[in-house]
Write a structure and sequence with these properties.
seven-stranded parallel sheet, globular
Length: 317
């Protein structure tokens, strides 16, 4: 367990998942994204057909996965060929089931899909992205068994702790559903990460900051922060084109300020995996911040340093 003062002199001034992974596994842990042809209860008619208003999964599917849609092994091989050039010192490779809801389906199919990835000679584990309303106890039991032999991480799209915002974006579940899924997974000693999307309609700055206190009380291993982006092919893009004022986009300086305020209030035992996201420029309508994602974390560190602050400095745990 970390003390809130632990990051006062840390180079990043926040608990970084990258640093933790390096220390735990002796080097870089790199994800190889896979598209496994899953869908979502908010798209197949179970809860809806249009999906979340902000969502276009094309932004999360790499080209090599689109070219080999029905062959997980080939996707891994092709992804590794590219990623090894980019990250030559990687210690462990894990299969990342990212697009859509990767725990949504018959459990026999889910198991076979995961096992196909794990049979690859270079894959040491799984990171499974999904919705909190698609996590059965049977599946969690299976993942808990796998975690005894492999690196297993469950990523849940919480998106917001504010039910008003979840309704506004047609999410199809409330925050209580997220709490339930997090607690059931963590009770099985699974590593649970949550995605949080800043800037949703129905949210205020106060409600976004209040989420730090709420999430700090949950058994989360890490968080991923995302800024709201207007992505082509989404309901939100149509709304934004018709009335841009109805979806105010956060300026970069305001977003970094919000990140710093949030991280100061966040339990330092919850690591930070990412501080923003990016979709291909060909799909993004807004915002145009004119920077690469890799520049955001140093900006957060600089902001905290200027304040003489750090991760958890205002946490009252």
């Amino acid at each position: 367990m970390f003390n809130a003062n632990s990051f006062r002199l840390h180079p990043r001034r926040f608990s970084s998942w990258i640093d933790i992974s390096h220390a735990k596994y002796g080097g870089r842990v790199q994800k190889v994204s896979i598209a496994a042809d899953f869908t979502c209860p908010n798209r197949d008619g179970t809860k809806g057909t249009l999906g979340c208003t902000f969502c276009n999964n094309a932004g999360f599917i790499p080209q090599y996965a689109r070219e080999n849609p029905n062959d997980i092994t080939l996707q891994i091989d092709t992804g590794l060929e590219f990623l090894r050039r980019r990250y030559p010192r990687t210690k462990l490779w894990v299969a990342y089931f990212q697009a859509y809801s990767n725990t949504y389906g018959e459990i026999d199919r889910l198991i076979e899909t995961y096992q196909t990835a794990l049979r690859h000679r270079d894959i040491s584990g799984l990171v499974i992205g999904t919705r909190p309303d698609c996590v059965s106890d049977d599946l969690l039991d299976y993942l808990a068994e796998l975690s005894e032999r492999y690196l297993i991480e469950l990523e849940l799209g919480v998106e917001s702790t504010c039910d008003q915002a979840l309704v506004a974006v047609n999410r199809g579940h409330d925050f209580a559903c997220s709490v339930d899924a997090i607690e059931r997974a963590a009770a099985r000693d699974l590593s649970v990460s949550a995605h949080l999307l800043f800037g949703l309609p129905g949210e205020s700055r106060d409600s976004m900051l209040a989420a730090a206190d709420v999430l700090s009380k949950l058994p989360l291993a890490s968080l991923k922060f995302h800024q709201l982006q207007i992505v082509k092919g989404t309901q939100m893009a149509n709304q934004w084109r018709q009335d841009p004022a109805s979806l105010p986009i956060m300026p970069l300086d305001d977003y970094v300020e919000l990140l710093a305020d949030f991280v100061e209030r966040l339990n330092p035992n919850i690591a930070i995996q990412r501080v923003g996201s990016e979709v291909p420029p060909s799909l993004r309508l807004a915002p145009d911040w004119s920077l690469r994602l890799s520049e955001l974390a140093p900006m957060l560190t600089e902001k905290l340093a200027l304040r003489r602050s750090w991760h958890g400095s205002l946490w009252r745990g």
